[in-house]
Structure formats: structure tokens, C-alpha cells
């Protein structure tokens, strides 16, 4: 049976299919992790452990010589997405009251829902997409993107001053597996060869646990507005970030589309904001439902759009990295070319059998 090939025919299939199955599992049987404790239950809620191993493995593949380009890539995606969320918030704030829209098709639409949905990128999804595409140079920008996680950036974007300290512990915690992986991979290249194949193999496990943290009931609770928010996050932030990635970093824009998602951590942001600023208390519940749906919608839509844009970029011959950095990323570029050649040969064989 060609199950793997069948899954890979779906754009971002190795991420999307397990994600869908995890969400379906939690929707139909939300307490299964408690019903089956031990290995199975711990796996279902063990996203953090899987991500530690995932990020460590990615770290071993990173070449420290490419730090300048990686910082440019990661910081540009971070800054532009935060500025975009802030700009949208300022515009919407001029037209809507603090409590947002309370009735009709756009019920729940508020400044809090918009900024929380746009402000945080699903770093794990970004990493999974970039490593699936053998784009280690883009995946390495994750530590910068991770700065968005949690309510801090949303508070800064909304101009709530002096109510939260920078969560440096969380940021350092995110960097630890990377740092260990980078150190070992740099000191001994055999670690790089050992753990590089682990990266794509971990994607389905991470995707399933992420899916299990969601459920399809979120879509019905937030209604049209939640789905609309998720689609807009992908289209608007993806378009803007892709332009930045192309014309500022000199890449092909694919990383920008991979960053066009809402992080799972964003679901907790509306209530965190409401606790520190009671004027947002009336919109916290509706904003949470909308953000949760945006997480689910973007988790499915972002991989599909990213894979499409990747194929489109390869057809157009756009560079993965600028020419002046190609020497530093030669290994990853060659791996990408080899993968494309293998896929082309497999497709030719299948076509020949069909004839």
C-alpha cells in the first residue's frame, strides 16, 4: 500500500493529516488521554517534549556561519508581523467600540480578537513546514519568531504599558534545545548526519499532538467570524510577509507564507489581557473562541498555501537564499535539489505504469 505517497499528495500532508486526525480524536473523544494514561495519554498531551526533541534535532543541522542571514530573516518576519497586527488594531480601533461587534454575522469581531490572532506565529508549524521542505536556513529563524509567543507582544502592540515583564525565561527555555543541538552539531558533524533524518520523522507526531489540543467544536462556537479570521490571517499576513521575505531578505517568499498562522498560545492571550486590563473583559470570551478557530483554520490552511507557493517559486526559479549566501547553505540547497529529482523520477515511473 502507498499510504505515505497518498498522504504526501495533499499539500503539507504529513502535517495536515495527523493534525486533522488529532483534532478529530479530541472532538469525538476529548478525555481519551485520561482514559488511556501512561504512554498513550502522555503522548497525546506531550507536545512540549516532542518539540524539545524536534528543536534539538533541527539545531544540530544549523551552521553557525549563517547567523547573519538567519537573524535578518527571523527578525524581519517578527517585526513586520507585529507591526502589521498593530496597524490593523489602530485602524479597527477607530471604527469599533472597545467591546467590538456584538450581533450579526460579524459578532465577536473586536480589536482584541484581531491583534491576538495576527500577532503570534505558530512557530512549531513554521518549523515543521521549513524542515519538511529541507529549508534549514529558514527553519533556523524560529528563535526570533518565538519572541511573539505569549501575551507580552500583544500587550506591547496594544500599548498597555507597565503591566507585564518580558518573559525572558520562556524565551531562554525555547532556545535551550536549539543551543544544545547547534553546539553538538558544530563540534561534531556526525551528530548533524545522525539527527537530520529525525526532523521530518517527528513532524507527524508533533502535528497529531497539536491537533489533539484543538477541537472542531471551536468552529461552531465562534461561527463565521472565527473561520473568516483564520482565512484573513493567512491571506493578509502571508502576502505582506512574503513580500518582505522576497524583497528585503532576497529569498522566494515561502518563509513568509509559512509564518502566516496563529499560534496555539494565542488562545490564552485574550483572558490574559482582560486580567491585566478589565476594560477588555467583555470581549475576552468571544475573542478566545475566534482566536481558537483561527489557530485551527490556519493550522490547516497555512501548510496548503505554503506548499503551493513553494512549488510556484520553484517553477519561477526564485532563489531560496540570496546568491551571496549560497555557499553557506550549499548542503541544504543540494538536499533540496536531490529531493526534487527523486520526486520527479518517482512521478515519471508512476506515469509510465499508468500508460
UniProtKB/TrEMBL annotation:
Keyword tRNA-binding on entry: no
Alphabetically ordered keywords of this record: Cell membrane, Membrane, Sugar transport, Symport, Transmembrane, Transmembrane helix, Transport
Domain of life: Bacteria
Pfam family for this entry, one: KdgT
TM helices/strands, residue ranges: 12-31, 43-62, 74-95, 101-118, 139-160, 166-187, 199-218, 224-244, 256-274, 280-306
Family named by the database record: Belongs to the KdgT transporter family.
Protein name, per record: 2-keto-3-deoxygluconate permease
